[in-house]
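Table S2 (text version). Query chain:
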Amino acid sequence: MENVLRFEHPEYLYWLLVIPVLVIIYILFRLGQKRRFERFAQIGMREQLVPSYSTRRANFKFVIFLFVIACSILALANLQSGSKMEEVKREGIDLYIAVDVSNSMNAEDIVPSRLERSKQAINKLISEMKGDRIGVIVFADKAFVQLPITTDYSAAKMFLSTVNTSLVASQGTAIAEAINLAVKSFSDEEHSKAIVIISDGEDHENDAAVKAAQEAAKQGIRIYTIGMGLPDGAPIPQYNQYGHQTGYRKDKNGNTIITKLNEAMLQQIAAAGNGIYVRASNSNVGLEKIYDDIEKLDKSEIEAKVFTDYEDQFQWFVGAAIVLLLIEMLISSGKKGWEKRFNIFEKKP
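Corresponding structure-token output:
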């Protein structure tokens, strides 16, 4: 059986993005260095004026430096190989969490924002789950599955970290579509199923969401809702391409838009879906209270083949980083007399 590879800490892989940034900085530095030299002499005279300088050698050292950084990041992420697979049986339920990613979820009446606070609560819930399967759906004007139903909690956390208000281009709050999509995405197996809607409830579909919840309830699927926001509402921050806040969203008349929690709508959806409604606050989102209620549902036996034993492989990357670092230190930017005999970095005639 082939081994399965995974990273124990996949969030560290985002640091690999620093490598192209360093490449751009290095290129700009070399171009600036070239322009400064050309103020005094033609670039072709560098060999005569600075005979000990080697452009190829400097480039080679920089490439090695990049590989050292890459190996260090991969070591931190800790690549693991699954070496033992077992068929395990768990008792649990299937749960889809539908997260509203419309712009109104950027409002900061729930600190740090409605959306970020929702993600923190979901992340904490995933850490406490045992045996249950979880999936994530995001929705605004449209809904789509961000993570199919799974027991891979590490993958769930990784996918959750990518959720933001730019995932769905068109704005709106399609709660009905999110419910229908979750219902279709559940497996046909006879398991207890539940859907948790996390939203500020600004739905413009009239009673479509309530009808969708009723249809889901007929299939034995419970619908729970969490109201993200405070009744008084809050303005919606607006950001530029660099992530800096530039002000607040305004309507056509130039007035600041205040987004308010539509508590009545979310209560109706929960009632139609035989679930409960919880209003979030700055101290408690309420997801744990809902999960406690979900845990009371009849649990079914879930069979799954999982790797139960993983071997760490980070030491290979640590070793490679150390060897490359030693090579980088041994290669000087200039030419040494004994190195000239080998002409490693010299142009061939």
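Notes on Table S2: The chain has a mean pLDDT of 83. The domain at 86-304 is CATH 3.40.50.410 (Rossmann fold).
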